[in-house]
Amino acid sequence: MKRILNWKLFLFAASLLLSSLSFVACNPDKEDEDTNVTTPNYKELIIGKWGIVKECEEDYFNGVIESVNYNNYDPSHEDYYTVTFTSNGKAIFNHSSGADTTDYYILNNDLYLAEGGENFKQSIGSLNSSSLNLYISEDDGDGYSYKMTSYYTRISK
Question: Can you tell me the distance from the alpha carbon of 126 to that of 45, in angstroms, rounded to the nearest whole number?
Answer without folding.
Answer: 11
